[in-house]
Design brief:
Blueprint lengths: L1 H13 L6 H17 L2 H36 L4 H26 L8 H8 L10 H16 L7 H23 L6 H16 L2 H10 L10 H21 L33 H18 L15 H8 L5 H4 L21 H19 L9 H15 L7
Pfam family, one: Voltage_CLC
Membrane topology: Multi-pass membrane protein
Protein name: Chloride channel, voltage-sensitive 1a
């Protein structure tokens, strides 16, 4: 409707121009461009492509960072003091960088961002939460946090990132069509794209935007959210295939369970006005404690400390009956799942320690003043509980 009215005003403005056909031809071209650029699907496609590229770039950078982390640890094998120093210093530097960068560029980027986004959707104006500065701080800070190996998630902050991108893109589109503004529908679409692009789940993204971020959800926004989320998820998975991270376009985390045989059951932060030095002490202490406890040659050997968060998810989906291989030499094809086995400790004890330690570690890590979420750590803990239920003798 806004596009139609704008077109009518332009027709009235240029229709009776004295210079005839030249001006009329220019007016027709201008009306055509305004009409086309004002269509929703162009905005949604641009949003999907942009967020797919951002998500893939963040995953690629954080994966390379984790590879470097494990490579340094492996190269120092045999020298326990240096191994410990590298294991602790690497995530410490990344977490401190993330905290300091967000504090200096945009403190609004700290945390998940979902509570603030829900507040904005309910009509409260929160300054600087949907700006380009917050976008840059959130992306860089979250990438550093994920690349550190700390138990922090991506989904919550990425919902905020996608909403910022939708808001910034809508302002950019207004230069051409003059009809876009930051509205409820644009932010809810951004939420759907954030989840859909993060996990490759368009339907989950739309459901998330309905259930979590909106007091009500207009029916006309269903197709917008699903279209943008589908396009973003598709491009994100295509980029993974292009980078040879996956053979074909499949689910992000695939299960390998046999069908038909198994049943499934469904610290107070410092004030934002505090000096930067005090804001670095808390994340430094948290990172130091978590890295020390997960040090593989130390206590980490009893809780699969060498596995990064995504490796934990993939290994817990491996189709092995670990009770049969425990106490003997690990088979050649066990891969990363060998981290759950110890010659002197039962695999059930290791899983129990992993659950207990990761539970409080994840809770404390999400309170650090960096972009972080809790969904991925909760998925890991829930998956571990489900895996334990599937382990009668000869079960998994």
């Amino acid at each position: 409707e806004a596009t139609r009215r704008l077109t009518e005003r332009q027709i009235k403005k240029h229709g009776s121009h004295p210079h005839g056909h030249g001006k009329n031809r220019h007016s027709h071209v201008q009306r055509f461009l305004v009409t086309k650029l004002g269509e929703d699907w162009i905005f949604l496609v641009l949003l999907g492509i942009t967020m797919a590229l951002v998500s893939w770039t963040m995953d690629y950078a954080s994966a390379k960072s984790l590879q470097a982390y494990k490579w340094i640890h492996g190269e120092l094998k045999g020298n326990i003091p240096l191994q410990y120093l590298a294991w602790v210093a690497y995530p410490l530097m990344l977490i401190l960088f993330s905290s300091l960068f967000c504090h200096l560029v945009a403190p609004q980027a700290i945390g998940s961002g979902i509570p603030e986004l829900k507040t904005i959707l309910r009509g409260v104006v929160l300054k600087e939460y949907l700006t380009l500065k917050a976008f840059i701080a959130k992306v860089i800070g979250l990438t550093a946090g994920l690349g550190s190996g700390m138990p922090v998630g991506k989904e919550g902050p990425f919902v905020h990132i996608a909403s910022i991108c939708a808001a910034v893109l809508s302002r950019f589109m207004s230069f051409f069509s003059g009809v876009y503004q930051v509205s409820r529908y644009i932010l809810t679409v951004g939420c759907a794209v954030g989840v859909g692009c993060c996990f490759g789940t368009p339907l989950g993204g739309v459901l998330f935007s309905i259930e979590v971020t909106s007091t009500y959800f207009a029916v006309r926004n269903y197709w917008r959210g699903y279209f943008a989320a589908t396009f973003s998820a598709f491009i994100f998975r295509v980029l993974s295939v292009f980078n040879k991270d996956a053979v074909t376009i499949t689910a992000l985390f695939r299960t390998k369970f046999q069908t038909g045989k198994l049943s499934f059951d469904p610290l107070t932060l410092a004030a934002r006005s505090s000096p930067p030095c005090s804001r670095l002490i808390f994340p430094a202490v948290v990172t130091l404690v978590i890295a020390t406890l997960t040090f593989p040659p130390g206590f980490g050997q009893f809780m699969a400390g060498e596995l990064m968060p995504r490796e934990c998810i993939n290994s817990l989906f491996d189709n092995f009956t670990w009770t049969k291989v425990w106490g003997s030499a690990p088979p050649a094809g066990l891969g990363r799942s060998a981290a759950w086995l110890h010659p002197d400790v039962s695999v059930f004890v290791i899983l129990l320690l992993f659950f207990l330690m990761k539970f409080w570690m994840s809770a404390v890590a999400t309170t650090m003043p960096i972009p972080s979420g809790a969904f991925m750590p909760v998925f890991i803990l829930d998956q571990r509980v489900s895996t334990r239920r599937l382990w009668p003798p000869g079960g998994r």
